[in-house]
Amino acid sequence: MVSMFRLTIWGAARTVTGSRHLLEGPAGALLLEGGLYQGRRGETYRRNREFPFDPKGLRAVLLSHAHLDHCGNLPNLVKQGFEGPIYATPATAHLATLMMLDAAHVQEENVAYLNRKRAPGEPRLEPLYTVDDAVRAARMLVPVPYDRPFQPMPGVQARFVEAGHILGSAAVVLDLDTRPGPTRLWFSGDIGRRHLPILRDPVLPQGAHWLLMECTYGHKAHRDPRYAYDELREVARSTFEQEGKLVVPAFAIGRTQTLVYLFHTMMQKGELPQVPIYVDSPLAVDASEVYRAHPECFDEEVLHLLRAGVLEDVLGFGRVHYLRTVEQSKALNDQPGPMVIISTSGMLEVGRILHHLKHTITDPRNTILLVSWTAPHTLGRKLADGAKRVRILGREYPVRARVVTVGDLSAHAGRDLLLEYALASRETLRGIGLVHGEEHAARALMQALAEQGWHRVTYFREGEGWDL
Ligand SMILES: [Zn+2]
Asked: Of 264, 120, 115, 258, nearest to 197 (Cα)?
């Protein structure tokens, strides 16, 4: 039988970055995701610049969520001739706009800096894409609400369903017009978790024939995130009791809003004393505005707290201090605790967090709270490993503040939920394809699936795929 549709994996193959998958059918080609590949410099630039398909020939892009490894190369796709549309949920469209513009700024700045260091006569470097390209890509975004069917090209009906990973995140359900009957391809995007703050729980696949899914934590069973919330409460309480500052490095989009929501809600419920919360990062402030603008994404708990008047709005805009300017940021140094300062970056490599750290790390009343994964050799990792002295912005400081790590706040499903997700449509399922996971994670999930009697799993290499 001649197959009418072909799915080819061109990214996040045996790795967790650079998601992009090509679906070709009788009426043309669609791209699922347009992610940035993040890795070592030379290889990264080449991989992001060159597409293994013709961007001009794509009829549309379908985007699952706004993380850079899923949307961060869309401006380059546009630069190379793609003319849109890019379908996404309304909240994803909103957040992806912020992400792409921010990424373009960073690239333009980095290239300008490197070019200033070049000798006269040496060829100038070019950014992967510019702010103009990002603006053009943002204009191509077409918001489609959850659970509303749409037709990205003839012969394909698509629908976004809740993924519970970050605000607006979705799985993409594709019903393909095939013979003798329709074929359902279910693309998971990134799978979130149950009981994450603000967000609804992920929807499990229904009636899928082919399931393309992520497996980032296929090797790891998470604890219920509610244990982590109890730990956060205790760390905050003990810091406030000694009038200390609670300093939290966090990524601007997702983790910052989770923390603000948790601390603010605990204060509103009377579980913690009312102390000022400062969010110090312009990007985090913008992202928080996006959260507030999308109540259609909130879970029942938030809606209940809003209805009951416990929360005025989801991220406490009336009480939480959202800082944009450097002057506002600096002014915090002179203010006494207790207070919460949430600032970027999550790994403590760059950003305003370094200034806050410099001003708080030598006082034993303060707490540095680490809630994100940190790469080896970063300042965040050194603190997590218990360093007694650290260098911050070129100067050495003794670590006298308390350093606490609270894990289990990941926004990715652990092994048990991945397994449940994989086999939810077992009755109809023909095959499972694994992407977005390192080898040890994928092997562990395949092993767990085999123990459940399921063997039709492919751990895709780049360029491999399915005839559907
Ligand atoms: Zn993600």
From this structure: 258
